[in-house]
Specification:
Number of helices: 7
Helix content: over 70%
Largest sheet: none
Structural class: mainly alpha
Order of helices and strands: HHHHHHH
């Protein structure tokens, strides 16, 4: 194994199609690519949870005083459930329990990222509909921060980051259409 492969980083010349799982990787065995991606996801799970907790607390704080407590509680419970589902599956007993990551595992991670994007996107029409335009823009800013975090925290698995970034802004568009903001 070369120094580049043993470092745990992806090779710089790998194609986006290979990272997305649409083409076999060149210059790297598929099993090696999957293991590097799995290790990257496991290593960043704590940072992802911290980002979700901080941004979730910000969204709740922005909504306090205008959104009913039941609305905040439903959204926070959805966020917690989504994070438990996603992060529990990334543990050694989850997606990679066989000791070897498979393409199906990464497609499931992409699906869970899309679900997380839907939960974050739902904050805008669900919680934002009760607040002022300033609160709605605050929720939008938190949502945008989560989209940036998804891109930064999931660099080795762009299908997951892409799924999140594609789905999360839909809530903003729906909220804008429904509430006229």
């Amino acid at each position: 194994m070369s120094k580049k492969e043993s470092s745990g980083d992806l090779p710089r010349d790998i194609s986006a199609k290979a990272l997305l799982g649409f083409d076999p990787p060149s210059g790297l065995e598929t099993a090696q690519l999957f293991e590097l991606q799995a290790r990257s996801l496991r290593d960043r799970s704590g940072a992802q949870l911290a980002a979700a907790c901080i941004c979730g607390a910000l969204s709740g704080a922005i909504s306090l005083g205008t959104a009913p407590y039941w609305a905040i509680a439903i959204w926070v419970a959805s966020l917690i459930g989504c994070n438990i589902l996603t992060l529990s599956r990334r543990s050694p007993f989850g997606y990679f329990e066989s000791g070897q990551a498979r393409q199906l595992d990464f497609l499931l991670i992409g699906r869970h990222s899309a679900i997380a994007g839907a939960v974050w996107g739902a904050a805008l029409p669900f919680l934002g509909s009760f607040g002022t335009i300033a609160q709605w823009l605050g929720l939008l800013a938190v949502n945008l921060a989560m989209m940036v975090f998804a891109s930064l925290l999931l660099p080795s698995l762009p299908i997951a980051g892409t799924a999140f970034v594609v789905v999360a802004p839909l809530g903003g568009m729906i909220g804008w259409l429904v509430n006229g903001r």
